[in-house]
Amino acid sequence: MNSPRSLEDKVALVTGAGGTMGRAVVRALLDDGCRVAMVDLHPASMDGLALEFGERVFAVTCDIGDQAAVRETHERVVQRFGAVDILINNAGILRDTPFDDLTPELLDPVIDVHLRGAVHVTRPAWHVMREQGYGRIVNTTSAAGILGTARKSNYGAAKAGLVGLTRVLAQEGAEHDIKVNAIAPIAATRMLTHSMAEPLEPAAQAMMNAVTSKLDPALVSPVVVFLAHEDCPVTGEIYTAGAGQVARFFTARTQGYHHPTLSIEDVRNHLADIRDETGYTVPASPGEEIAELLRAVAARP
Questions:
Q1: 11-249: CATH homologous superfamily?
Q2: What is the band of 267 on the pLDDT scale with cuts at 50, 70, 90?
Q3: pTM of the model as a whole
């Protein structure tokens, strides 16, 4: 990084800014010199930081599921700060339920906030970033979307959608110096509390308390700020962070098995070869994945 105040000429827009994770990210951006538009559905949740940092904070109440409201919010942010250089898509809700019980009332709001909301907020910011030839976007995904977890089919589908959005926008934004990455945070937030709503046995609860005490959202925010920085060298990638530990998630391709007249029996008999992770690769795009397929086909006598 160039200096401790390396974002002092940048403008960031953060959704879900009033939640525990959102406030931690906003504070980290402000501490690095950024001006921040805090966007949340609940105005009272943003008051503290707005009072503390004064004119460098612009608190806006908005339902990001409402496309017209998002456009108006974006216009107000640009009028106030003149630009949007950084976008943090952090807003989220939970409506956990077994898949058997999933209804439109439990599915639609989750998709509207996490996936459609991110698209609604990103589109006007994207246009500005393309015109100015610069931008940084960080999408908040989840291990629930990457790895799956019970009772979260709606949430997992939305978060997996954000992974796809991240990868596509990273490719479309490359020629405009727009870098797009995703983070899967592990932090003590209301989302985690909601996920752990079922009572635990005393020993398990004590262990959970010990773990959650280390899951300070402030230990996730440095990763977000790094990905939002102009010096960030990566795009289209996914990072998981929690309790001071950072790692990368990635999608890999095994060497697999090839037969020119592939049959059901071939798949059954060579399943171990198909699943063998020895020598896996990490294609950066569908084109690279197809190239690997062609190489495998050409290599067979």
A1: NAD(P)-binding Rossmann-like Domain (3.40.50.720)
A2: very high
A3: 0.92
